[in-house]
Design a protein that fits this description.
The chain is an all-alpha fold. The chain contains nine helices and no strands. Helix 2 packs across helix 9 and helix 8 crosses helix 9.
Length: 245
């Protein structure tokens, strides 16, 4: 199980490694973030993902090409290969926890201070509350937004009143709210709009489809789909990871 620090490191370390190896600063796209989420949800360890990225660039540099690497999807096939090898190497072996995977987070290791966390929660709550006033076309979605505002308010009070914010527990709560909102978006978005959006995403991923495991492909499509729906409605991401972006 990821500790909260490892959760944040998972995204930032992958981004840093990709940018470093590319040798040109390039912000990751929403498609890249969706892919990282897919790796995390599949349980690909950070060191395996980084190894795959490094080997993918080593291969690219051994045979220089005119085109530069512009997306993390270039590394997908190698990451999958490294993950498969890692899984095979663990068959029948005694499971040993990765260093830091389950370590207890002491108060001085919380990634963000109380003020930063509260600002993040309040900003998200304010954005969602504004959406409630603007949306009158879907009772179910409005109800989900109201529930989100109420839960975020409760989390704010919890953070304010606690001696030390428990980031890991807070992240679990925020993930639950995001899941609730995602389900509401799926249920209230017209099927025609969903089909069109899904087709656009699959077209975008088509050049990489042949190099992706089916499970990674489907998860990445799903992550991108939900990200696009959130963006279209202006629903903010709630995870504490996005506090640092």
């Amino acid at each position: 199980m990821f500790s909260i620090l490892n959760y944040f490191n998972y995204f930032t370390e992958i981004e840093d490694t990709f940018v470093r190896r590319r040798a040109k600063h390039l912000m990751l796209s929403s498609m890249d973030w969706a892919l990282i989420e897919s790796w995390k949800e599949m349980g690909v360890p950070l060191h395996i993902a980084l190894r795959g990225i490094e080997k993918a660039f080593d291969s690219w540099e051994s045979k220089p090409r005119k085109r530069s690497v512009k997306t993390l999807l270039y590394c997908q096939e190698e990451v999958e290969a490294q993950y498969a090898e890692w899984l095979e190497s663990r068959v029948g072996a005694e499971v040993v926890e990765e260093p830091g995977e389950t370590e207890t987070i002491s108060p001085d290791k919380v990634p963000f201070n109380r003020t930063a966390i509260l600002e993040h929660l309040r900003h998200a709550r304010t954005q969602i509350a504004a959406l409630i006033e603007a949306r009158n076309d879907s009772i179910d979605l409005v109800e989900a937004l109201r529930r989100a505002v109420t839960q975020l308010s409760d989390l704010e009070r919890e953070v304010e009143q606690s001696r030390q914010p428990e980031a890991q527990k807070l992240e679990v709560s925020l993930t639950g709210i995001e899941r609730m909102l995602s389900e509401a978006l799926r249920q209230t978005t017209p099927e025609e709009q969903q089909a069109q959006l899904s087709a656009e995403i699959k077209k975008q991923l088509k050049p990489y489809r042949g190099h992706m495991e089916a499970s990674v492909y489907e998860q990445t499509v799903n992550n991108l789909f939900l990200n696009r729906l959130r963006e279209q409605l202006g629903i903010p991401r709630l995870s504490l990871f996005y506090l640092g972006l």
